[in-house]
Model the fold of this input.
Amino acid sequence: MESSVDAPLQWVESITMLRLPDRADKRLQDLMDRNNEGTLTEQELADLSALAELSERLALVRAEALHLLGRKPA
Done:
């Protein structure tokens, strides 16, 4: 069942700009690099998993907003 919700264009536009904060993005990049080297602790592996999941969810929300606007990701 599909439903629709009216939303201000500006709100949908703002969703297309969602990203991890710089500090979190840098931490994710560092953890991914170190994971490739096999040097992460259990806590760092948990952090990597959580940040990667959050990043993926943000990407999906951005993609849906772009779809609603009739645009393609850049």
In short: Residues 42-69 form the longest helix (28 residues). The chain has one domain: 9-69. The chain has a mean pLDDT of 92. The helical segments are 9-15, 22-37, 42-69.
